[in-house]
Structure formats: C-alpha cells, structure tokens
Amino acid sequence: MEEFIRGFVGDVTRVMSALPVQEIARAINVIQAVYERDGRIYIFGNGGSLALATHWVSDFNKTVFSHNLESHTRRFQAIRLPSTEEELSAWANDVGYEMVFAGPLQNYLQETDGVIAISSSGNSQNIVKAVELAKRRNVPVIGLSGFDGGKLNELADVKIVVQTEKGKYEIVEGIHAVILHLITKYFQDYFDHQLARRTAGA
Amino acid sequence: MPKRLAGSYRRAEGPSTAPARFRQGPRTGDRRGAPVDWDKLSLMILVRAPLRISFVGGGTDLPEFYRKHPGRVISVTIDKYVYVLVNPTPLVDKFTIKYQRTEIVDHPKDLEHTRLRAALLDLGMVQSGLEVGSFADLPAKTGLGSSSSFSVALLRGLHAYRGRSLSNRDLAEEASRLEIDLVQEPIGKQDQYAAAFGGFNVFQFNAHGPVDVSPVLLDYRKRSALEEHLLLFFTGITRPAASVLTEQRSRVEEHFETYVAMAESVGEFARRVLEGDIRGMAHMLHEGWLRKRSLASSVSSSVLDGLYEAGLSAGAWGGKILGAGGGGCLLLLAPPSAQAAVRRALEGRAAQERLAGFKEIGVRTVQSGTDLVYRDQQPPVY
Predict the structure, then answer these.
(1) With helix as H, strand as E and coil as C, how does A15-40 read?
(2) Edge-to-edge strands of the sheet including A114-119?
(3) B257, exposed or middle or buried, with CB in 10 Å at 0-12, 13-18, 19+?
(4) Measured between CA atoms, how close is B4 to chain A, in angstroms?
(5) For chain B, what percent of residues have pLDDT higher than 90?
C-alpha cells in the first residue's frame, strides 16, 4: 500500500516540477487585463474538468475578496459554462454535444472577456469548438491541458500543458486543481496587498 | 512629401464573414429620401487605448537602425488613456470629426486630421454619415505615446465598425503602417506595439520578420514597489515628436554605436526589473538619458536639464525625459523617503522657469492593451 502511495506521489511530484511556470504567469496577466477592462472570464470543461471549473468560479468570485468583501466593490465576473444543466442538455439534445460550450459562449462573449478551457486530452470536440469561437473574436484563451496538450494547446494563447503519458487523468486533473488554486491565491494576496497599500496611504 | 494613400495592402484583413448588416460600414439611409434602415447600421463603438512609459531603447525602433541591427525597447502601459468613439449619423450626410477642434466635411479627403484622413481613405470608408471623436486623460505631446495610442484605438474602432476583429499584432502593424507609411511620420513602431499589447514588455524590432514581443512577467509586489518609487511630472513644455525625430533620424548612421548600446541595454534593464532592483533601474535610466541626449541637439534643453538636475540633487536616483524629448514628461525613480523633497525641488525650479503647465501625474501600471470597451450591439458572429 505505502509503495503505491509513494509511487503516485512521486509521479505527481515529477510532473509538478516540470510545470510551464512562465505560461502560468502569462495566464495571471491575462486575467489581470480582463479585470482592468471589467470583462468576464468564461471557464468550461467536461466531466471532472467541469467540476474544476465550477469550484474555481466559486473561489474566484468570492474567496479572492473574502478578506475585504466590503472594500472591493469591483470584483471578478467568472462564469462557468453552461451556467445551467438545462442549457447543457438543450444544446446537447437539440444541436449536438459539440456545441454545449460554444453555444452558450456565443450568447455572452464580448471583446473584453477572457476564456479558460480545461481538457486533459486537449482534443474534446466541444472544447475545441468553443476555443475556435473565442479565437475568431480575438478573445484571449488560457488552455489547461494534459498529456501532449492536443489541439487545445495548439490553439490557446496561454499554453498550460501538464505533460504526462496519455491517459493519466488523475494526475492531470489533480494538478489542474492546484494551478487554479494558485491563480486564486495570487489574486487574493494581490487584493490584500492593494488594501494594505490604500490603508497605509490614507 | 508623397502620400501613398491608395495602398492596396490589406494584410490584416481576411474576407469578412460578418453578416451583411455588419459589413456595410457607415451608411446614410438613402439620399433620395427613403427611410433610414437602422437595422443595417453598425452602432456606436467606444475604444480605449493606454499611454505608456518607455524606459530604455527608444529610438532603436526607427527603421534606419533596426534594418541594420535588432532594435529593442522596454516599456509599460499606464492607467491614462486615449478614447476613440465611432458613431453612425444616418441623418447627417457628412463626416463629423471631433478632437481639439471639429471638422465637418463631405468626403474624408477633405479632412485636415492627417491620420483620420489616411485611415478612412485607406479602409475605403468614404460613405458619409459617420462621426469620430477622440478624448484623452492627458494632453497630446507629453512623451507618453499618445498619438500612437490614438491610431491604435482608431483602427480598432473603425475595423470593429466594419465587423472585423484584429489581433493585437495585426492592430500594431496596421497602426504602424498608417502612421509611418501612409502619413509619413518620422516615428518608430514601439508605441503602436505598446498600446496594442498592453503591459510590461520587451519589443524587438527585426530587419526581417515580425516584431518579437516578450512580456516581462512581474508579480504584484514588484510592480507596486516600482510604482511607489516612480514619479512622473508633466513639464508644461510640449513639442511634437516629429521635430526631434526628424533630426534624430537623419543622424542614426553617425551615432550607430550609441544606438547599439541602447538596444543592448534593454536585456539588462529587464533583468533589473525582474529582480526588483529599482536603484539599478534608475542608474540605467540615467545612463540611457545621457546617451539619448547626445543623439540630437533638440532632445534636451537647459530648462529640462535644470529640472532633472533639481530632482537628482533632492534625492532621486535617476530618470529621463520621456518620449522623443524636447519637452513632455520627466520620469524619476526616487525612494519614498526623498519624494517630498524631490517634489518641492521640482516645483521650485518650474516656478523659476515660469513653467505654467508643470504638474505631477500620479500613475499606476496596467496590463490591458487597446480595448473595445463598449459597443451598442452584440458583436457579429464572425
């Protein structure tokens, strides 16, 4: 048992130490820019990746500002797509599963927005369709992918690929969660810092 | 000077896939009196472009230099903006252009505003019933790149009005082409790139091939430490960049080695930025400013030198006059403990020189580039 656990942790550690740090920094810059222009961030994925997207939205819209909810009236506008199960099933049933993200995204997307697409393989048709839509409108795309990055990594402006052998979903999804938490933590510290600066200046 | 206004170059534009109502561009209803079809109009668009502070390497973005040796510039965009508004006026069969003055003409060829005239003609936007206005947080000719920020904002707005979205790179290139090729301004490309991309960047200008854009990935701690050391003063003296740059451009060959040293220092400056070595940055700004002063007689003046010296004597670590020179803004890096003294010294000196417009400008750095911040309808599904 311990050997299994050590083996798994060892795999995760190896992959973690090879993360594309500069790309994660660029993702933070993209989100900073979206905040400055009061845009929205759309995030989506399939299965476990959709769960990651939902979790991140909750953290990002509230936890980031939780130390100073009152003083930051301008907050992030992060939205998981589709925002309701009804939309998901309607697009899948009526049009096709490949439109479950691009369909709702088309309703919302403006030039000031940003997109985070999560796909371990990077090749999910519905993810690629939504990313192509964002690219056509020159909306910046942060791609969180795994394995060899697939099509998502080719298309994304910010290419965060968690490189593993094909099929290591458990490692890729776990590390995607860490990266998303890192982004949340960065902005939480940033807004705490801003508040401290304002208080010191007052 | 010949104006190549009829340029057929349309690299940034593929065939538009926008629905017909977005392809129209400006459109008056019907001159024969038929009702205006409002559904076929593109509606109001507002674009915002940031100004920038250029630290090191300015001048190496001139083609006279970068065609022979890679030019490099490091700059950051700031929270002071130029706004361009594009609006259809279906009931007014004219081109109405509002900036420091208002021009109302039948055809863009009659406009006096050189860049607007060139842009509208080049894009073939000659059907009247269009209004373009520009607004800014700061006056022009402050050395903060505002004229190129205007061009970038204008092109983003005019293209959006016609249902086209451009990448930052295409936008920067289109704006450079407008200002340098079509209007024949004697300027480089750094400001168009800074405004289009936004943020802290190193730009490398190559003889062949695209401009390399490398973001300087700075965390919020270092960014705010830099902001806390940064003082920006408008000297109250304005001078169009062109008058300085025309002299500078004609003498690139003569000062070639100085330009090489300026371009080469950009990498070292970026390293100091990343290390948070503000004193080191200030030292390099000072060296760069001394180099730049030697490039053309009009870059500095005794008044500007006097202000800068006053700042240094009061405890600033280093700085420079921003932009092409001859006037505009003075940038200083100073430890917070010395800033009150620096302000006093500069205000005293400015009063002595009777610089009525002298004023401090508080700035923060920003990450976002030129944005379409408002449009009066859903974007087309292109």
Answers:
(1) HHHCCCHHHHHHHHHHHHHHHHCCCC
(2) A78-80, A41-45, A114-119, A141-147, A158-163
(3) exposed
(4) 29
(5) 74
Q: What is the ipTM, given to two decimal places?
A: 0.93
Which of A36, A136, A194 is closest, CB to CB, to B366? A36
**What pLDDT is recorded for position B379?**
57
Length of chain B: 382
User: Can you give the pLDDT at residue B20?
Assistant: 44
Asked whether the beta carbons of B162 and B25 are under 8 A apart, the reply is: yes
Residue B91: CB partners within 8 Å, gap ≥ 6?
B28, B29, B36
Task: Please say whether the beta carbons of B121 and B108 come within 8 A.
Answer: yes
Residue of B nearest to A134 (CA): B382
- Rounded to a whole number of angstroms, the distance from the CA of A110 to the nearest CA of chain B is 7
Token pair 């371990």 is found at A120
> Contacts of residue A32 in chain B, CB cutoff 8 Å?
367-368
DSSP state, residue B210 = P
Q: Tell me if the domain spanning B20-375 has CATH number 3.30.230.120.
A: yes
In residues, how long is chain A? 202
What are the CA-CA distances from residue B341 to residues A194, B231, B345 (Å)?
Answer: 26, 12, 6
**CATH number for the domain that contains residue A162:** 3.40.50.10490
Distance in angstroms (rounded) separating the CA atoms of residues B28 and B116: 19
Q: In the beta sheet, which residues pair with residue A78?
A: A41
A31 is written with which tokens? 């989100």
Place of tokens 């298309």: A155
pLDDT at B4 over 70: no
Cβ-based contacts of B369 with chain A (< 8 Å): 33
Is residue B136 a contact partner of residue B151, using CB atoms and an 8 Å limit? no
Q: Cα(B172)–Cα(B99) distance, rounded to whole angstroms?
A: 22
Q: How far is A8 from chain B (nearest CA, A)?
A: 32
Tokens 């920020």 sit at which residue? B149
pLDDT at B206 over 50: yes
Domain count, chain A: 1
Beta-bridge partner residues of B130: B88, B95
Which residue, among B164, B367, B370, would best test binding to A if mutated, counting the most A CBs under 10 Å from its CB? B367
Contacts of residue A110 in chain B, CB cutoff 8 Å? 372, 375, 379
Q: pTM to 2 decimals?
A: 0.91
Q: State which residues form the domain around A10.
A: 2-201
Binary contact (B379, A110; C-beta < 8 A) = yes
